[in-house]
């Protein structure tokens, strides 16, 4: 009898342990208990036409809630030495995943904080834990002809009207973010609400404005009309036709330059079309950023001329327009591009 007591006590202890464990979560695969599913949104970033991605460019993809535009998931992709299409995969945390709810996906390509391409907002309904959205098309980031600046305490923004099919939209630009807003009914003033983002809006009331961005209400804004800004640069206006690229140019070839008022520069590089931006730090000074170009193939001679043209263009430091109206761009190695109107 005495020898059987330890066995009985052991059996009782095992029974109690089993009963206790039956009320606990089971450890499986590194987590306790059943897990709420996490949604993964996948797709590919692409362009309508082939382009060369500039060095140091990155792609940003984010998923926001449709109601208050909170960023719920985002991914940063280094595009160095990569060609589009580029695949992305956004993991929506379990706490933010609600089956059947609409989310908004956006993508952009930036270089050193400057936006080069953007996508249109895309509605994504998370009906499955893995949601494939297919191709997300990127298009060049274009600023409107801005006619006002909003100064709101420590915040500032640019606004202007753009034409979209048969409706005028207001374009709101904040650093590297751009929103198109449609007119909305208001008791007074002019109210514009972001497409698909009711938590982002601009309400103009004379020389004052109320701005809400991603559900954050900004301080009251002053509207500063920029139409009477600094005089236009002599570079702006009609297209410049290139006559000479570092002392030579192939007969019947064509290269052009068009300086836009909003800081964009585009044209024909001999074979391909290019787009970039420019700044004028001081009188006679000119800086041209590395840009993007289409990727058509031409004769070896034209391709060599185009490469030389773009290299000089990206190294330009000064410009001069002489008494005959001829434009001379000079880079840091004293190489020149000469053009006329």
Give me the secondary-structure topology:
Blueprint: H1 4-21, E1 27-28, E2 31-32, E3 39-47, E4 57-65, E5 71-78, E6 86-92, E7 102-111, E8 114-119, E9 122-125, E10 130-140, E11 148-152, E12 155-164, E13 167-174, E14 177-184, E15 190-194, E16 197-205, E17 208-213, E18 216-217, E19 221-225, E20 240-245, E21 256-259, E22 264-268, E23 273-279, E24 287-288, E25 292-293, H2 300-314, E26 316-321, E27 327-331, E28 336-340
Parallel strand pairs: 3-10
Antiparallel strand pairs: 1-2, 3-6, 4-5, 4-7, 7-8, 7-9, 8-10, 11-12, 11-19, 12-13, 13-14, 14-15, 15-16, 16-17, 17-18, 17-19, 20-21, 20-28, 21-22, 22-23, 23-24, 23-25, 26-27, 27-28
Protein name: Heat shock protein HslJ
Signal peptide: 1-27
Organism: Fluviicoccus keumensis
Largest beta sheet, briefly?
9 strands, antiparallel
CATH architecture of the largest domain: Sandwich
Broad structural category: mainly beta
Strand residues, percent: over 45%
Shape, per Cα inertia axes:
flat
Radius of gyration over alpha carbons? Answer: 29 Å
**Number of helices, where a helix is a run of at least 4 consecutive DSSP H or I residues:** 2
Range of helix content: under 10%
Please write the string of helix (H) and strand (E) elements. Answer: HEEEEEEEEEEEEEEEEEEEEEEEEEHEEE
Q: Residue ranges: pLDDT <50 for 5 or more in a row?
A: 6-37, 227-231
Oligomer: single chain
- CATH topology grouping of the largest domain: Immunoglobulin-like
Total strand segments: 28
The CATH class assignment of the largest domain is Mainly Beta
What is the total number of structural domains?
Answer: 3
